[in-house]
Design brief:
35% of the residues are buried. With 520 residues, the protein is of the alpha/beta class. Residues 72-78 and 93-102 have low confidence and may be disordered. The protein contains 20 helices and 13 strands. Helix 2 packs parallel to helix 6 and helix 17 crosses helix 18 (417-434).
Length: 520
């Protein structure tokens, strides 16, 4: 069923029952889960939490509890969900016409009535065929692209706000959920800015204090503030030099995989007047006099080097005076914990660790996630440099293709869907900045990485073209299905992101040939 009133049709329905909560393995879903957990705790609602990484786990859990499950779908205006009557139709039973002559009517009257009924039936059949044709067109248009609507965490925060149970922690989780969508390029810049505006009003409402004795904040309080901050990954927990080198935006525009790019970075630092000794030490240890106007200095120099979007709208959180995090810091840390390469735990253990890191009482886990995120960002840029310098990105006609080979350094970091998707997006950005071929700049990218040597499988991901006007719609989900179907390739569409598949390595060649002919 579609839910239009989330409070009445969802929360008030489950409030008096034990709830089974399925949570996907992405940061936005984790944030939505944290908000729901807080609401359930307020209302003493019993629940069971089941992490699901894909369709198979969801199906298994569903079959175990199918007698008790109600499917609820939030209908978003920006998702362009088809209307119910356009997709579903109650079966119309044909009226049975008796050939009984016992009504005493004249034969001519019977003939006239039968002719009218035949015309009516013909019209009904024609309307039915037209409706089915229109339904096919609507479903094709709806299903051919994959795209994202409003953040799940934001939807849950709006529910908490309607219930007058919204807290600062819930607001922060909603901010992290939205930032996750932006970091992973799931939504357009316009959508991001619009949602930031919505959350900014809540931030002002929750964090407004008058400077008097009655309203002074305690040392350990949580404060959220709106920031117009630098577009540099983890720079407040890293050195400025490392952040510049390992942020996708700056690495792509400086072309840091080349000698010329490294020289441009040195020129950029010289233009700002920042000594290398200061730039290469931890941000927290930099001279206070340099840090005071650092954002303005970087933005001014970035404009000279053609980087017009060096600063972005975001939010930060303070836990007392010591701990400060940007929303993007938490996204990178949580994502790294969830897809951790450490083999000392199962997928469920990593899920729980990532979920715990979102609580302010578990800052040690968050800091551990930040260290993992730094390793992953370094590995991402090193892999991009390797792919571009060895010309691993090749044009297949309608799309670009890149394959990571077994034995490539850090290759197992990118066997997981979210990590490979982020690598692919950053690689495509860098390739577009480096190539002089105008046609290649407009092509999408298909990327493959080894998944399991034992089972002979690879993870394949499809990324839409890199363009400022891109609406973030991804057409590879349906294309992968058609290509695998036409070649009988052994493919598993298990991930919730339809543009990510698992494929048998030996079927890769025929699968790619079919994809080329399909998209040509």
């Amino acid at each position: 069923m579609f839910v239009s009133d989330f409070r009445k049709e969802f929360y008030e329905v489950v409030q008096s029952q034990r709830v089974l909560l399925f949570v996907a393995s992405d940061v936005d879903a984790l944030c939505a889960c944290k908000i729901l957990q807080a609401l359930f705790q307020c209302d003493h609602v019993q629940y069971t939490l089941v992490p699901v990484s894909g369709w198979q786990e969801l199906e298994t859990a569903f079959l175990e509890h199918k007698e008790q499950i109600k499917l609820l779908i939030k209908q978003d205006d920006d998702l362009e969900v088809p209307a119910y009557e356009d997709i579903f139709r109650d079966e119309e039973e044909d009226e049975e016409h008796s050939g009984n002559d016992s009504d005493g009517s004249e034969p001519s009257e019977k003939r006239t009535r039968l002719e009218e009924e035949l015309v009516e039936q013909t019209m009904r059949r024609r309307q039915r065929r037209e409706w089915e044709a229109r339904r096919r067109d609507i479903l094709f248009d709806y299903e051919q692209y994959e795209y994202h609507g409003t953040s799940s965490a934001m939807v849950m925060f709006e529910l908490a706000w309607m219930l007058s149970k919204d807290l600062n922690d819930m607001l922060w989780w909603a901010i992290v959920g939205l930032t996750d969508q932006w970091v992973q390029d799931k939504i357009t810049q316009m959508k991001y800015v619009t949602d930031v505006g919505v959350l900014q009003r809540h931030v002002s409402r929750h964090n407004h204090r008058n400077e008097d004795e009655e309203n002074t904040l305690s040392v350990d309080c949580t404060r959220i503030s709106f920031e117009y901050d630098l577009r540099l990954a983890l720079y407040q927990h890293w050195s400025l030099h490392d952040s510049l080198c390992n942020t996708s935006y700056t690495a792509a525009r400086f072309k840091l995989w080349s000698v010329h790019g490294q020289k441009r970075l040195q020129e950029f630092l010289a233009d700002m007047g920042l000594p290398l000794k200061q730039v290469k030490q931890k941000f927290q240890a930099m001279d206070i006099s340099l840090k005071e106007n650092l954002r303005e200095m970087i933005e001014e120099s970035a404009n000279k080097f053609g980087m017009k979007d060096m600063r972005m709208q975001t939010f930060s959180i303070h836990f007392g005076f010591k701990h400060k995090f940007l929303a993007s810091d938490v996204v990178f840390a949580t994502m790294s914990l969830m897809e951790s390469p450490e083999k000392d735990g199962s997928g469920t253990d990593h899920f729980i660790q990532a979920l715990d890191s979102l609580s302010r009482s578990n800052l040690d886990k968050l800091y551990h996630g930040l260290e993992l995120a730094k390793k992953k960002l370094r590995a991402t840029q090193q892999t991009i440099a390797s792919c571009l310098c060895t010309n691993l990105v090749i044009s297949q006609g309608p799309f670009l293709y890149c394959s990571l080979m077994e034995g490539t350094p850090d290759v197992m970091l990118f066997s997981r869907p979210a990590s490979l998707s982020l690598l692919s997006k950053h690689l495509l950005k860098s390739f577009v900045c480096s190539t002089k071929n105008r046609r290649c700049k407009l092509l999408p990218l298909v990327m493959a990485a080894p998944l399991s040597v034992e089972h002979g499988t690879v993870t394949v991901v499809g990324i839409p073209p890199e363009a400022d006007s891109s609406d973030r719609k991804n057409f590879f989900g349906r294309a992968f299905e058609k290509a695998a179907e036409s070649t009988s390739s052994r493919m598993l569409h298990n991930h919730f992101d339809l543009s990510v598949i698992e494929l048998k390595a030996e079927d890769r060649s025929k699968f790619l040939d079919a994809l080329v002919s399909l998209l040509s």
